[in-house]
Amino acid sequence: MDPRKRIERLHGRQALVDGIPFSLPVDSRDTPALMAAFPISAARAAELLPGEEVHPLRLGGDVGLLLVTVVDYRTTDIGSYIEYSLAIACTHGLSPAPALLPALLRGRHGTGQFVVDLPVSTEVSVKGGKGIWGMPKHQANLDFVIGADRVTSQYDLDGQLCCRIEIDRPRWTGLPMKLAAVNYCAFRGMLNKSSIYFRGRAGLNLPLLRSSARLTLGDHPRMAPLKSLRVRERPLFAGFFPETRGVLDDHMESWFLTFAGAPPLAPEGLESVVGLGLGREWLAPPAAR
After folding, report:
1. Kind of pairing, strands 54-56 and 81-92?
2. C-alpha–C-alpha distance, residues 113 and 131, integer Å
3. Preceding amide of 235 cis, omega within 30
4. Which of 141, 139, 145, 142 is CA-nearest to residue 122?
5. Which of 48, 114, 177, 178 has the most crowded CB, counting CB atoms within 10 A?
6. CA-CA distances (angstroms) from residue 131 to 121, 124, 267?
7. Averaged over 115-133, what is the pLDDT?
8. Count of CB atoms within 10 A of residue 63's CB?
9. Where are the domains of the chain?
């Protein structure tokens, strides 16, 4: 069965998971978002991906992609919050996929993104996203600012700049889009796969003559792995979605992360979520820069 049809059959049903009440489907409305893709070193990306079955999606040669997606969730079952995703475009399988093909044959190559860092605004979003779906969520200082000429979002932690993304606001945002995306995340020594479906209208910038998005990685230690990727200054594309509607599938898959020898590090475990509550309060906005 098409997963979207299964999800639709659950419409109106109720669930209580880890103390969090959900009215199915797990959806969002009235939600602006931005997205940008920056070329990176695929070889460096491979060093960051865990286990032996997640591989960087290669555009050709040593070129992979860093995907920056910021979503300003305004209407959800757990209240409003911002989600700031920093991820590597990837494939899933026993061996790396050929260049470019995974963008066309997504199901065959398990095409998706491996989420490296995923700060959010609220405690309850951490509790649900990490505890249920295995996403690397943590609470941080975030904003999402829609201006007349540009859309910006900043991520601070411990009083330091982690990341800032700035996108030139497209003149036209009427392009209808309906997409399905796959997230791969590592938690508890396992690789977790989840799916999200969203639709909305977008404006896209394809920077042929100038850079339409600017990414700044700060000096916080959490950014060191991303800085090692040799992120190029000019994005492959950037887009702004004034409003979207999304559905996060309640079905997920997981596998053990395996290594040729002993795992290099002890994985983060359930101790990081068992004490979390249902708080919806945001941390202070990031410092102006």
Report:
1. antiparallel
2. 19
3. no
4. 139
5. 114
6. 16, 10, 14
7. 98
8. 17
9. 27-272
Q: What angle do CA 282, 285, 289 make, to 5 degrees?
A: 165
Residues near 148 by beta carbon (within 8 Å), at least 6 away in sequence: 169
Alpha-carbon separation of residue 137 from 72, 73, 214, 241, 252 (angstroms): 15, 15, 24, 23, 17
Q: What is the pLDDT of residues 219-247, one digit of tens each?
A: 999 999 999 999 999 999 999 999 999 99
- In the three-class reduction of DSSP (H, G, I as helix; E, B as strand; rest coil), residue 106 is classed as helix
Give the span between the Cα atoms of 98 and 13, in whole angstroms: 42
The topology under which CATH files domain 27-272 is: Acetoacetate decarboxylase-like (2.40.400)
Q: What is the pTM of this model?
A: 0.96
Can you read off the two tokens belonging to residue 132? Answer: 């249920």
- For 87, the 3-state DSSP assignment is strand
What three-state secondary structure class fits 37?
strand
Closest CA to 77 of 136, 130, 15, 139: 15
Tokens 């609470």 label which residue?
A: 139
Q: Which residue has the tokens 């940008």?
A: 36
Q: What is the pLDDT of residue 263?
A: 87
Quick one: DSSP state of residue 75?
B
